[in-house]
Design goal:
The chain is built from 14 helices and 12 strands. The protein is α/β, with parallel strands linked by helices and 361 residues long. The structure holds guanosine-5'-triphosphate (GTP) and magnesium ion.
């Protein structure tokens, strides 16, 4: 999964990136031009337990790739967020939107005051502008294409045009693509344009060490603005420092400072929630591994995350819930006790299912 970190200049993006990846990327004076990329393993306490049963050669956690994207150079339309880094933003599965709430007077704010609500709305508007700009060009191209088209091509082109215009109208009316309901065929058309307002967003309020914590409701944001957004509070600077310590040191400091779960874990939890992701597990002597998929994914499709051929060759899935497997100690014992089930193509995979896919290759 690819998550891009976005936010205004000097909001703490690189600092948060360091906190999430245990990194040491240099923070800058607001003129960052370089992108940082880091991969982290998704903590899953079930993996070491399963490794204790299977002693696999390899233990593979799910991974998240974080992209620290330099801030928009100017809020002016067309030089903003959609500029140089549009490809990265289009390819991302979700955004972490860093909002400055810390007061550090040594760090000048581009707008000269700390105002989380204003900044959050400005960044959401950036995503909207970037999409409208893309769609304007698409509409023009579609009109030209239609003029030159042969009669037989027209119905398809008109259908595409209608999909784009509907989405554009709604984005203009401040309904981001992620909140729009599209038909299957409209979605197929829109996939081509990688619109930014279609991505899930998790807002990270970058607070002072002592808080206070912010919330959407506390900021008085309208329901329609925040629908579907995730939120999390973190003091990026402190978290980045703690992330560089040894495990024991970090734990000790966290307790002394009254800091709970590390932000790098909380951000992953909220990201999974916001994206509606779950994990299923595969076990064996070669490898024990976690795989992340959208909740309610059907077994046949889930098999395809392991290997694309597995979708075509899917026969059935042998499923045992994690807790049952741990209690039984082996899938063989699980079968005897009747907790290992055989499921078909349409079975909706549950979080913690340990699955063996039977495949016809
Ligand atoms: N007090 C305080 N300062 C912070 C915090 N997070 C970041 N800073 C400081 O704010 C400044 C900017 O942080 P960066 O992480 O470089 O911000 P950025 O968004 O990556 O900045 P650009 O990439 O230049 O746009 C640095 O001096 C950080 O030390 C925080 O939680 N508290
Ligand atoms: Mg930076």
């Amino acid at each position: 999964m690819d998550i891009a970190i976005i936010g205004l200049p000097q909001s703490g993006k690189t600092t948060l990136f360091n906190a999430l990846t245990k990194g040491k990327a240099e923070t800058t004076g607001g003129a960052a031009t370089e992108m940082h990329v880091g991969v982290v393993k998704v903590p899953d306490p079930r993996l070491p337990v399963l490794a204790g049963i299977y002693h696999p050669k390899k233990l593979t956690a799910a991974e998240i790739k974080y992209w620290d994207v330099p801030g928009p150079e100017s809020l002016a339309r067309s030089q903003g967020i959609g500029g140089k880094f549009r490809n990265t933003l289009q390819a991302a599965d979700a955004y972490l939107l860093v909002v400055r709430a810390f007061t550090n007077p040594a760090v000048p704010h581009p707008q000269e005051s700390v105002d989380p609500k204003r900044d959050l709305l400005a960044m959401l508007a950036e995503l909207t502008f970037a999409d409208l700009e893309v769609l304007e060009r698409v509409v023009q191209r579609q009109e030209e294409g239609l003029k030159k088209s042969k009669t037989a091509e027209r119905p398809t082109l008109i259908r595409q045009q209608e999909a784009v215009q509907k989405v554009r109208r709604d984005i203009e009316a401040d309904i981001p693509l992620r909140r729009q309901t599209l038909t299957e065929s409209e979605s197929v058309v829109m996939v081509n344009y990688g619109l930014l307002t279609g991505k899930p967003v998790i807002v990270v309020f970058n607070t002072d060490e002592s808080g206070p914590e912010l919330s959407f409701s506390g900021l008085g944001l309208e329901e329609k603005v925040i629908a579907g957004l995730g939120q999390v509070n973190a003091c990026a600077r402190l978290e980045a420092e703690l992330a560089l310590m040894t495990e024991d040191e970090e734990l000790e400091f966290r307790q002394a400072l009254g800091q709970g779960e590390p932000a790098r874990n909380r951000v992953i939890q909220i990201s999974y929630q916001t994206l509606g992701l779950i994990s299923f597990l595969t076990v064996g002597e070669d490898e024990v591994r976690a795989w992340s998929i959208p909740a309610e994914t059907q077994a046949q499709k889930a098999a395809g995350t392991i290997h694309t051929d597995f979708t075509r060759g899917f026969i059935r899935a042998e499923v045992i819930p994690y807790a049952d497997l741990v209690r039984c100690g082996s899938t063989g014992q699980g079968r005897k006790e009747g907790v290992l089930r055989s499921e078909g193509k349409t079975y909706p995979v549950q979080d913690g299912d340990v699955i063996n896919f039977l495949i016809n290759v």
